[in-house]
Amino acid sequence: MSAPESLGKLPKWAMLIDTTKCVGCLACVAACHNQNELPVTEYFNRVEEQEFGRFPNYNRRFLPMQCQHCDNPPCVSVCPTGASYKRSDGIVAIDTRRCIGCKYCILSCPYKARMINKEHGYVHKCSFCAVLLENKTLPACVGTCPTGVRVFGDLNDPNSEISKLAASKKTVQIGKDLNTKSSIYYIIG
Amino acid sequence: MASGFAAGTVSCGAKNGQEAATGIKASADVKKIATQCQGCGANRCGIYVYVKDGRVWKVEGNPRTYNNAGTVCPRGHAYIKELYNPDRIRQPLKRTPEGKYEPISWELAFQEISTKLNLIIMDNGPQSVFWAQYPMANIPLAFRFMHALGSPNTITHGATCFTARNAAFNATCGGLPDNDLKNSRYIILVGRNPAGGVKLQQIKDIADAKRQGARLVVLDPRHSETAAIADDWLPIKPATDLAFLLAMLNVIIEQGLYDQRFVSEHTVGFDNLRDGLVTYPPEWAEKICDIPKETIYRVAREFASYKPRALIHRGYHGGYGAGYFNSFQTARAVAILNAAIGNYEAVGGLFIPLKPALGELINGGHPAPNIPDIEKTDGAGVPGRYPSASYSDGIVHAVPELALSGKLKAGFVYHMNPVRTNPNPTRVIAGYKKLELLVTIDCVMSETAAASHYVLPESFFLERDDHVDTVHSGPVGQLTMVQQVVKPMYDTKPMLEIITGLSKGLGIGKYFNFTMDECNTLRLQPFGVTLEELKREGVIEVGPRWVEGFKPCKTPSGKIEFYSSQLEKWGLDPMPRWQKPLVSPNPSDKNSFRLIHGKQAIHTHSMTANVPYLMQLSNRYDMIRLWINRQRAEAIGLKDGDTVVVESDVGKGSVKVRLTEGLHPSAVWMPSGYGIFSKYLKTAYGKGINYNDFLNTYFDPAVGHVMSNEIIVRVAKA
Amino acid sequence: MIYWSYMITFYLFGAGVSAGAMLVSIAADFIDPAKYKKIVRTGAYIAPFPIMAGMIMLIFDLERPWLFWLLLTTFKYTSIMSIGAWIITFFCAISIIYFMLNLQKDYLKLKTKANTVNAIKAVGLILSTGVALYTGLLLSTLTARPFWNTPMVVVLLFVSAVIDGLAAISLVLCLRPDCPDCCITAPKTGENMNEVIKNNNTFIHTVDFILLYLLLLCTAVFLIGIGKSTESAVSALGIVTSGRLSVLFWFGFVAAGVVIPFIAAAYKLYTKMSTHRPWLNFISALLALTGGYIVRSVIINAGQLTQAILF
Ligand SMILES: Nc1nc2c(c(=O)[nH]1)N[C@H]1C(S)=C(S)[C@@H](COP(=O)(O)OP(=O)(O)OC[C@H]3O[C@@H](n4cnc5c(=O)[nH]c(N)nc54)[C@H](O)[C@@H]3O)O[C@H]1N2
Ligand SMILES: Nc1nc2c(c(=O)[nH]1)N[C@H]1C(S)=C(S)[C@@H](COP(=O)(O)OP(=O)(O)OC[C@H]3O[C@@H](n4cnc5c(=O)[nH]c(N)nc54)[C@H](O)[C@@H]3O)O[C@H]1N2
Ligand code: SF4
Ligand code: SF4
Ligand code: SF4
Ligand code: SF4
Ligand code: SF4
Ligand SMILES: [Mo]
């Protein structure tokens, strides 16, 4: 892609999560917690544990979950005040000043990605660390992961690691049948 | 990493609606300071701490430190907030006759402690005094303090953690090697779970090796978190790894799969070993360890086929650190198997880390105390007692015994909590309470602090400078340090100031005539590195890089010793042979299990259960549960989430169960980070139970370790 | 996790009763304003109030009630809640006008042009249909919630709304203490009271019977549909039929909300109400209303307890 073109093009932020590498350590959960200065009981991401098989042919899978920054986000379409919105770089954001706390978006999200802030009453969630992105820094959960489960980047840049991985590996979008068009791609072994 | 991204940029400026969108305030004053995490003593990861508007905000990994390479574990993120834990000790405390703690000034505390200690030393000699601590960066200062007093009794946590492993590797190859996991093609973990018993570098290197196509085999009775990314999980019956390993050796030797050149050039005792192994074929082992013989054959062959780029991880605590009666010989077998495929000092194998020798304080004119010429009171390294035990680690759980028998009279406990982390709390408390003087230096009222005469609060790690550290040394030497990030919040002092204060009244003041900065400057002198550079960079590499190629061992023969005449001299088995575990569950009792334990990534020993955020994670993920094999649980009428009573001949307690297919039927598995009983630790108090509650006080005959998995419990519905 | 409390249940219930009452009233007016005037008027008198109470509940269920006004300064056509907020606002307005319209005949003696009256009724009909559909649509459009995400929820809540409206009317007719024969106003001279009562009752019972029969069908189709759909929906059904909502479901939803009122309506029709029994009307109306509330409560809770993605 020629320089002017790629310069003119907005990024399309996305994440790739390779569950075959996840050991469920929760470092990403704790990193997110500090980054976003959340109260002790609130969180933007979580790690689900799934078990398969019977002893001794048994396995577990750890599956990190957070806002999928859907391209067809039900949370945005149901929000009655426009507090939830989709940015042009793909990030689904919340203008907390416009949030009335009706919780309709929470119920509309198939990924349980949203949470009420107890102190202020607004709904908040993973922002893909938008503030860090402005400074060209990776999201907190990505940088801290010891096994490199999480790859973050720009899907509009064909040279980004995520674009290459998305092209070369078999990935799935969770809840694809719900037509949310999520921006998090999973590798599930 | 995605193009155009930097890790570690100062980032706070929030513009155009971001504040509303993220709740992060715009244009805060953010500083980023390099230091070392103290969320666990084991790793001391290099980190950057961000301070926003004067308040500690978040951490990031230092990308260059060996142990973490840019990453941070969950404890590391959460532990910085302990700075603000209301349970912190805010000034020195002294126990009143009623058992309460009241504030005392530092001056008076120093005076009273040194007066008492002088009297004790006068009456009982310096060998009646001990200093126990987890070996943090400051440990050279503790050694200096004790040696100045004339006492050899510096003790670490080792006997509760890893001494069987260390002693076995010392006997075999003269030191504790590191694992070149990243370049290995075939990795076997025997009761090692770097994803839960976290070492970030190791789990990262395993993931990297796997990306390059390496195979990972996990031998663990429990499906560990590392097993979740393994190619093979071999759910071995606990306490029987030795049988598995002997059978592997048998296959490798019988079938001539070993590295013949390496064995003939760099090892001694191969013939004795081969003769000894005829009795241990896989057909024999499968009956003992519950792993089918076909699997043993396969793993042995695969392991040898990648030689020398294959390794059995040197291990840590879980498998054979201090767990079983046969742990020492199990670790010997691990060391020997590695040597049999010639992976010592080979790429993708084991290597002795390159630890740089720090500068001496004597170069600054500070006299060095002599190492006392007396045996350690606990018998570590003493022929006839625990000859193979490490002199520098000692035997920590012997302290209560020695206190009860009057051999130890006074002690300092620094950055350690033996009352909670040693076996059988009732007995440990009785022992520590018997001491005439117990001084604990901690940041919170641990169980040990709550049994002490004096509690001296150390400044939190974010509030102080520590001694220069070499813990990050691996394939190259690295210097790192704990550096002050914020000013102390309370009337606390760093460790050096505490022992300096004590030294005056003890007549050893001349040994502590320097500040931390002077000390560290001298330590750095040989490397031409200034303290400012180190503080700015957080880590500095020094000395040569590791290169492949065998180096003479620090064993009597200079070679790797399959057969150890040294061990023979001490009356120990010179070669590994099968040893039964000390205790076994009763096969005719449906409620009888072996109790094993392990780390969860979110907790460190006894010291993080009181971190509110981490305890919240324990609850949210329902992690305070005893694992039990589903079929066995159902046979005694248990459902997932039921509460059970666990009972051994030492203790009793109740806990919720997690029914799982991921655990060997003979055992129950308990997370080891709970069961805090110091009522001063309000978040953790009374949540969960701990394996030490059920563990007898044992001393393994070779090195005196705790044998922490030799526990039989009865489990029944509450 | 429960995010929408009983206040939202009440809000949906209130909206249903209001919309139902209005619908029934306008329908009765359309069929025969003179014959069914009691139904017409009672319906008009009820319509504005439950929904207003519901709105207050809705506001207090918000985490930030003081920002409630934002709902009414925004219109988002993708958001059923936003559409609903506007429909309800207009409904409230029209229901108040309709209320006045019915009052004026008796008390205000104002003159309104017939065309205007018809227009009001037409708008009222549309808006009340809108409100009655809205309560179901609010839930059924959420793909994340398998228990809600079926058109049957819309049909079920719509039918239930009309039944509730009818029950509310019936209840008020019985409640009028100074008129044991269910007259809301004194009979005009020459009017045969028994005839009036009989006409109105027959209307109520007939419609009730038909709707309850429909509700019975809808419920069956709804549950069977869920039982035959995704794994997560089946688990939702489990929570409802044998889990923590089962008592509420079997006794409240099925028994009180559907089966008993259906049997009562059938009985009343069968006996042709030859003897007028206000207590029976009263009890069955009360039961139907309670059932209507519980139907919503069960649906609201079951939907929240389940997810399309099971982790
Ligand atoms: N999160 C966290 N990380 C830590 C620490 C911490 O406290 N918390 N502490 C650090 C320290 S000091 C240490 S020593 C290390 C410990 O690190 P590890 O030794 O890896 O940790 P453990 O969890 O004690 O034990 C690992 C596994 O051993 C298994 N095991 C038990 N018995 C047997 C057996 O008979 N055979 C085999 N094959 N496996 C067995 C257990 O099921 C467990 O899964 O972790 C270090 N890292
Ligand atoms: N209950 C239990 N017992 C265990 C284990 C376990 O997991 N659980 N694991 C076993 C193993 S592998 C090991 S290595 C040992 C570890 O045994 P310990 O070293 O006794 O364990 P920790 O819980 O890490 O104790 C650290 C103590 O240091 C204090 N501390 C923390 N930060 C500072 C500081 O900055 N300055 C000072 N002065 N003190 C500080 C903490 O409050 C805590 O009291 O325990 C063994 N026994
Ligand atoms: S930090 Fe990485 S390995 Fe740990 S839980 Fe998160 S994604 Fe999984
Ligand atoms: S995951 Fe949920 S919160 Fe995030 S964009 Fe999709 S629907 Fe919205
Ligand atoms: S809770 Fe806030 S963000 Fe969510 S739908 Fe309601 S107004 Fe929008
Ligand atoms: S991208 Fe940022 S906000 Fe989202 S889960 Fe990761 S750390 Fe949290
Ligand atoms: S492993 Fe975790 S707790 Fe231990 S030093 Fe590293 S970041 Fe801190
Ligand atoms: Mo340890």
Q: Are there runs of chain C of 5+ residues with pLDDT below 50, and where?
A: 177-185
If you consult CATH, what is the topology of chain C? Formate dehydrogenase/DMSO reductase fold
- Work out the helix count of chain B: 21
Distance between the termini of chain B: 51 Å
Structural class of chain B, by secondary structure, is alpha/beta
Would you identify the CATH H-level superfamily of chain C? Answer: Formate dehydrogenase/DMSO reductase domain
Using only C-alpha atoms, the radius of gyration of chain C works out to: 20 Å
Q: Bound compounds, please? A: ligand MGD, iron/sulfur cluster, molybdenum atom
Order of helices and strands of chain C: HHHHHHHHHH
- Averaged pLDDT of chain C: 87
Describe the protein.
The complex is a heterotrimer of chains A (189), B (718) and C (311). By secondary structure, chain A is an alpha+beta fold. The longest helix of chain A is centred in the first third of the chain and has 9 residues. The N terminus of chain A is likely disordered. In chain A, the strands form four sheets. Chain A has a three-stranded mixed β-sheet. Chain A has a two-stranded antiparallel sheet with strand order 2-3. Helix content of chain A is 23%, strand content 24%. Chain A has a single domain, classed as Alpha-Beta Plaits (2-Layer Sandwich), CATH 3.30.70. Chain B is of the alpha/beta class and 718 residues long. Chain B folds into four domains: 69 residues, 2-Layer Sandwich (Phosphorylase Kinase, domain 1), CATH 3.30.200; 247 residues, Rossmann fold (3-Layer(aba) Sandwich), CATH 3.40.50; 175 residues, 3-Layer(aba) Sandwich (Dimethylsulfoxide Reductase, domain 2), CATH 3.40.228; 126 residues, Barwin-like endoglucanases (Beta Barrel), CATH 2.40.40. In chain B, 27% of the residues lie in helices and 17% in strands. Chain B is built from 21 helices and 26 strands. A seven-stranded mixed β-sheet of chain B has the order 5-4-17-16-15-6-7, with helices on one face. A six-stranded mixed barrel of chain B has the order 21-25-22-24-23-26. A four-stranded parallel β-sheet of chain B has the order 11-10-9-13, with helices on both faces. Chain C is built from ten helices and no strands. In chain C, helix 1 packs antiparallel against helix 3, helix 6 packs antiparallel against helix 7 and helix 9 packs antiparallel against helix 10. The chains are: A alpha+beta (189), B alpha/beta (718), C mainly alpha (311). Chains in contact: A-B, A-C. Chains A and B meet through helix 2, strand 2, strand 3, helix 5 and helix 6 of A and helix 1, strand 3, helix 2, helix 6 and helix 20 of B. The site of one ligand MGD has 29 residues of chain B, from helix 14 and strand 16.
